[in-house]
Amino acid sequence: MKQHPNCTDCEQGPDVMNMPVPTELKREWAAIETRRQFLGRSGKVLGWAGLASLLGETAFIGDARGADAKGQPAKQARDGFASPHFAPKAKRAIYLFMSGGPPQIDLLDYKPNLAALYDKDIPASVRGAQQLTGMTSGQARFPIAPSHWAFKQYGNTGTWVSDLLPYTGKMVDDLTIIKSTNTDAINHEPAIMLMNTGNMNAGKPCLGSWLSFGLGSMNDNLPTFMVLQTKVNPKENNQPVSSRLWGSGYLPSQYAGVGLRSSGEPVLYLTDPNGVDREVRRKMLDAVEQINQQTLAELGDPETNARIAQYEMAYRMQMSVPELVDLSKEPQSTWDLYGEDAKEPGSFAYNCLLARRMAERGVRFTQIYKRGWDVHDNVTVTLPTLCAETDRACYALVTDLKRRGLLDDTLVIWAGEFGRTVYSQGGLTPQNYGRDHHPRCFTTWMTGGGARPGVTYGETDEYSYNVVKDPVPVRDFNATVLRCLGFDHNKFTYKFQGLEQKLTGPAPASVVEGLLA
Amino acid sequence: MAAIIANPSTAMLKVSGRPGPTTLAILLAGVLLGSAVGCHHGSTRVAGKHLDFNQDVQPILASRCFACHGPDPEMRKAGLRLDLEEAALRKRPGHPDAIVPGHPDQSELIKRIESTDPHHLMPQSPLGEAKPMTADEIAVLREWVKEGAVYRPHWAFEKPARPAVPAVAQGHDWARTPIDSFILARLNKEGLQPSAEADKATLIRRVTLDLTGLLPTPEEVRAFVKDTSPQAYEHLVDGLLARPTYGEQRTRYWLDYARYSDTYGLHFDNSRDIWPYRDYLIRSFNSNKPFDQFAKEQIAGDLLPAKNLDPLIASGYVRLGLSSNEGGTIPEELRTNISRERTEAFGATFMGLTVGCAVCHDHKFDPTTQKDFYALSAFFNNIEEKPFNDDRPVWTPVVRIPKAQNQEAYDKVLAKRSELETQLRDLRHQERGLVERWLASGQSRPQPVATDKLVLRLRLDEGGGGVLKNSAPNANPASFPIGTSKPEWGETPWLWPDFRMQTSTRAILGQTGDSEWNQPLAAGGWFMLRSAPNFKDNGASGALLSKMDTKQHNRGWDLSVAKGIISVNLVNQSPKEGGGDKKVQAKKPVQSKEPFRYPSPTDLSAKDLAPNKPPVKKEPPKKEAAKPKPPKPATPEPAPDTTPLVAIKVTTVDRLPLDGEWKHIFFTYDGSGKASGVKIFINGAPVATSVESDTLTSSTIRTSAPMQLGWRYPDATPAQETRYQDIRLYGRALSADETRRLPYEDYVAEVTGKPNSQWNEDQWHVVSEFYLHNRDSSFGAVESHIAQLNKQLEKLSEGGDLTQVSWEKPSIAYAHILTRGAYAARAERVEANTPHFLPSVPKGESHNRLALAEWTVSPENPLTARVTVNRMWYELFGTGLVETTEDFGIMGQRPSHPELLDWLAVEFRESGWNIKHMYKLMVMSAAYRQSARSTPVQLAKDPKNLLLSHGPRFRMDAEMLRDIALQSGGLLGRKIGGPSVKPYQPPNVWEQVSYPTSDTVNYVQEHGDALYRRSMYTYWKRMASPPNMDAFDAPMRDVVCTRRQRTDTPLQALVTMNDIQWVEAARSLAERVIQEGGRQPEQRINLMSEILLSRDPSPQTQAILENSFAQMRQHYTADPKAARELIDVGEKKPNGAIPAPELAAWTMVATEMLNLDETVTK
Hints:
The complex is a heterodimer of chains A (517) and B (1162). Chain A is of the alpha/beta class and 517 residues long.
């Protein structure tokens, strides 16, 4: 069985040459095979950092210059983790990030008994000593707002799903639903950083950076870690998402996520300027390379070599990225599955479709941000819009990956940064209510490589306020995600500031076996 | 000291022990070869004799043992601690001796690391897996024990002494400076030779780039090449150091060290005005301000004597970190994060230590304890500020900088003011002596307030537990239980550590305060009204003290607050919302004053304070981002309550400023049944009131509802999370004199009733402040003089720019140790102090930021000078002598040249912290002036060129690259300083990440000169930093960066090929060479090369470029439309005199040259 030439993480991966990728790409891969041997031979004098994003081998070969930038001995990467620690179930991941905090009570955490408690105060004993946000801490009352929507049972598992998510209902037998996810942060900024980087304060690498650092690239033409922003719907309460959420923190900066943009150039500065066509660019690059080769011969600086490779990769990206976002060859069945929304660049459905295309092309980690879930008020108006934007697309992505045989080794994650309160923020009426941030429980799901399908894990109390069974704190959640991708979170470390830093942070974390296939 | 050269041959001969001599000899030989690289882990040296503990042994112990046997007691196994000599050699009952000096075979440490039994073998991971050491490491530790297991303090914590400059026999003529002798000694030791001096063209390019961030002009290059005098280079260097661009270049680095940015970084990520700080940096570097002064001004400029505003502007450094105004923000959490961030920033930049590791637990490797961290953080926890920023571009403390024409007058007043401040500070400094003298004199002693009819006194100093004690004499009941929801105890001290209601905390005081309309009543106490981002009007509203029955038409009485207006209600009956808050507002506008004090101007206008409006884009209309909806009214409007109002309601006229300060709020009622019988006192003084209702007459106000703190239970909104202290209720109306003494004097009388040996710090503070403000004759006079000067300063600075600064409070700087770093898990309270393992602050000094600043640059401080010269070295040579510029701790890299580092550190300090002197010294060195050409031998022995066998060569930083591109095309503007500018940026970089109402949601590019300013002036938004700089590893400035990464990625090539800025620069360069270079392509290529590379191109390069030009010209001649398009890129119009195809062709040649490895490399 032939592996992807750069995919050293898997003994028994699928034959990439049989994957549904353009033949052009396969030719490129074959070509890298040759160059890889060349690089392997002369690795000592090559600037590996420059080739890292190109070849993604840093973790395995030792990042002579890249790691140096952080002052680590060259062999750190090798010592830290020679390879993934387990045979990974997933080779890539797609993270659907629902920024703002989706209300679990209205979506997947079914609480039928709440209807009878409409407008009753949530017992103080349930709230306990939970520090509330400044937005509701002054309320005189905390009246219970039962979900406005009915729930139905779906699938063989009979999982209860809100009427807002009919498409999600159709795939419950494939999902691992976690009702007991919980976090330490109660406000967006710290919570979203904790979820993405394992720490509430800025400056730490995110999950995607860890994975690109640890797994490297499977692709010669596209970045290892890509981030897609969903176009903002101005009717929703859109909390910001900053680039630090896909930053590389103390990891070398080539492991940061590259944004794929929905309008204008898909990658910043990708497009040649007006008046410069491919032929001119090629000629320009040929001249630059010839002169750089001379410089290399004259000064002997390995960095020059890295720069030569860098320009070649840039040239190839200029072709492969437009190909990636060119949906004209997608068959009708795609549109039948994702819906017409998917034709609109920047829509969530469009981003899901792109995520599938990137998965096919060997992008390791794709993260899609969908903002707007911060429903402090007007839930009955806003939430249906949010669900309509996302429900079908999530289903389409999972189904599409499954049809193409990619779901087995792709982990799909759906999560926000916290949940929302059962009690109403602001006024509660039979027609409407609001929900404040709630850190003690929220619902997330995973599916695909490594996750156990058809499982609902963890339980919350009858108010969906506290976890009563199998809590999954953020660090355990992340430990489990890493496990699916082959890493022992305790061993997957990077030495910085004298410490073996890890995604799950210093507090003890454990893999949640119950979530694993 | 200089004898660092070990003799390899002896090393290999004199060994014995467990591994056979031959094996070990081979082993050691291997280790020795490894040491060529010098300074990283795994390159230790077993020289057979005289191992250097710091260089050779400690790195192994640290990386292999300290995690379980280091400073952190939580993680310590078997009671063994190996980082301290005393602990390591201590007998542990039941354990064999870990180290028996001189006897490796008897030492458990050695047995364990050499063990073959996997259960016995050390080290082990925290999970119990054996992780054996390498043979080299074992050999080193064995040898070290054999040599007597000598410990030495960590190198960086010992004060540097100036080492002797090594006398080097060979190559004496190479060395030009003492630096070179150190470099050469090491090279010789490793069997390497230095390289020859670079040619003059390379040299002038290198040194000009390093000292000014810009390229030398072709004329400068020619002049230098021609100048054959021996001083030519020195003259060049002196000239460069004198240029204003020198200060810009140094500032550019310092902006990273100080985490400068133009937005505050969280949530809205709005703009913040602090660019005058950047101008201060440029001025300081250009005037060669001594580094000690420079550092002190930034750390504590507000506490320094001032002749002008520079020190105060400099203190903006402290406040450059992230800030927030997120709606749900918990102020205590944010405050903790802010002081933590400042501490980590200070640690990285000034101490070169990763103190942040001790936020949650004692540092695992360094001796920094958790207490050290929080004591250090306390220095930054005592600034007059609110933790959240109200989404303002400036939030107090800020200063208004006078306009140029007023500066002289302003500075004169400021200097006077500074003198007076110094007088106050001197008085404070001697306050304890003054207090003692005052009390000893027996004159004007503090008088208590009589406890007659004192029914309730809640001191609220219990500090914990479930019961509030009533300390009134003969109190009945004597205590009140608190419900299940606990309050917060001891977050901040006032008279004593405080008490804060949590959302659900209930302090129910039974029938205390049961009073009839005809009975006199007086109640109140100290309150800190809560202020938080999402509170209505930013401040709490509700009842502070209440005995009112909301179910009986609000019968009863209360003391309540709404939007800073205090009201007293004595009610028989009233409609719902009986407080009638709405009426107050309807009746007359209330005075609202911002709580500013010096240095913040009190005239900050609404415009100054409002968040900048997001600029509207002049683009085709698109969907406007909607404002988040205002919170909906809580409930549908209830039917109007027609209950007639029978009550007394008296309210204050002026709003209390919502400044997060304690206020003593008190009222008295004489039992007359008239509103005129109600008086309200703030901080002991009666305040103007207005009567809202006077209909009570002789109706009853008695109710069986309980008296409560903070609530009119059950369904009225509480006075959110207010802090309370010393709450009292009297069954009589106090006299005006009594109310004056109530807030402070009464307590001071109580404290001074005891001998001062029994006073704690808080009590000393209370008594001293009372003395200074009420008994000291001069203090008050000076204060009022200062107040006059403040008015003058305000007048003189009218219309000036604002910038954020620091302003120290007079209170004690303290912080709490937080268990596992959680903001609410307060453990011990600690006063500001420096880490225990470093020299301490001189005795008798106040522990404030000024003391920290003095300490930082004191001759005793072992770190600052080393850390600073090391960064200078990093800037010039690409790598620090200590590679980890931010970490000089135990896990940081060991210096490649320890003696050189110490020599430089001492030289720096002894030169009077002369910054230019140090840069000059470094660039004058032969080491710096070497050719960058490397040989395979050098690369093999020292791939990172840490030993400097050849000159430095590395890719320039983002800003320099953009600057030289602009400079080469003659586009670069030379204006120095001023607000940040917004040059070209691809669309939708800010828009796609920002909060819709952020004032930085839309990037509106500027035009004209703003496009071509130096990159250090480009507007820096933290949530989306300039993408063309981000691509080249420019940090986000979220946190301090003392060392940029230097990656090579394809995204960089995309920037330099396609960014409008670069394409326009290429075209401008093309125009320039066409106009100035002569007619022949060869001449033009020559000029381009001179401009960018400071030299003629090689014949091959010349040929390649000529050929390329010919191809391009052919292409664009055939496609004039494409030519036109290309030269139209950018806002500067192309030179119409040049035919488009020719200009386009030359533009592409210029692009080629701008993209050369040599061009982007220094």
